[in-house]
Amino acid sequence: MEIIIQSLGFTASPALETFIGEKLQTLKNDRVVSARVTLFKGPESMPENNYCEIRLEIPGNDPFVKKQSAYFETSVSECVEVLFADLQKAKDKHLDSRKVQKEVIQDALLAGEDDVDEDVELEDVVK
Question: Is Protein biosynthesis found in the keyword set (predicted)?
Answer without folding.
Answer: no
